[in-house]
Specification:
Layout lengths: L3 E7 L5 H7 L4 H6 L2 E5 L12 E7 L2 E3 H12 L1 E7 L1 H5 L11 H11 L15 E6 L9 E3 L6 H17 L2 H6 L2
Parallel strand pairs: 1-2, 1-3, 3-5, 5-7
Antiparallel strand pairs: 4-6
Bound molecules: iron/sulfur cluster (SF4).
């Protein structure tokens, strides 16, 4: 039986959701028997693959790059999972919304600078005016709430989804885009 292709992605989040995913500990070995991790901060792949069965997305959409990335991921993923409260509600990164991008950049790079006060524009993603959860840009199939979701939540959800999908790969297509 071929393994399901699994990806994990990190948009605007703190990495805590990925850390909690890794807290599955030895249960990761059982998962590894059923999936191949084809793209993730945890592995070396640089380009999101053309066909992925399940993608876990941590973090909200905060920049132009995030927006492009989540749309590309959706186009190439059968089952998209919002992992954690930042992906689902905006949560921590959305705390900047009432303040405004310009005010925050000025405060960080101009007012608090002790030398070379300037807002960086080269090599950094352009921030969007408002941080939004991923479902405001693309269809999300499964929501795993929590800040972060517990390792037990990851284990239950992934075991169930992977087991169903392994029995009937077309089930993923019915769930997905
Ligand atoms: Fe970090 Fe919590 Fe956001 Fe996950 S939901 S990325 S743990 S702040």
């Amino acid at each position: 039986m071929s393994k399901l292709k699994l990806a994990t992605v990190w948009l605007d989040g703190c990495s805590g959701c990925h850390m909690s995913f890794l807290d599955m500990d030895e249960r990761l070995l059982e998962l590894a028997a059923m999936v191949e991790v084809v793209y993730s901060p945890l592995v070396d792949a640089k380009e999101f693959p053309d066909e992925v069965d399940i993608t876990l997305v941590e973090g909200a959409v905060a920049s132009v790059d995030d927006e492009k990335k989540i749309k590309k991921i959706r186009a190439h993923t059968k089952l998209l999972i919002g992992m954690g409260d930042c992906a689902i509600t905006g949560n921590v990164p959305a705390m900047r919304n009432p303040i405004g991008v310009e005010e925050i950049l000025n405060r960080a790079y101009i007012e608090n600078a002790s030398a070379q006060a300037q807002i960086p524009t080269v090599g950094v993603p352009k921030l969007l005016p408002i941080v939004r959860p991923i479902h405001e840009y693309v269809k999300v199939d499964v929501f795993l709430p929590g800040c972060p979701p517990s390792a037990a939540t990851f284990n239950s959800a992934l075991t169930a989804l992977v087991t169903v999908a392994a029995l009937d790969i077309s089930a993923l297509t019915r769930f997905g885009a």
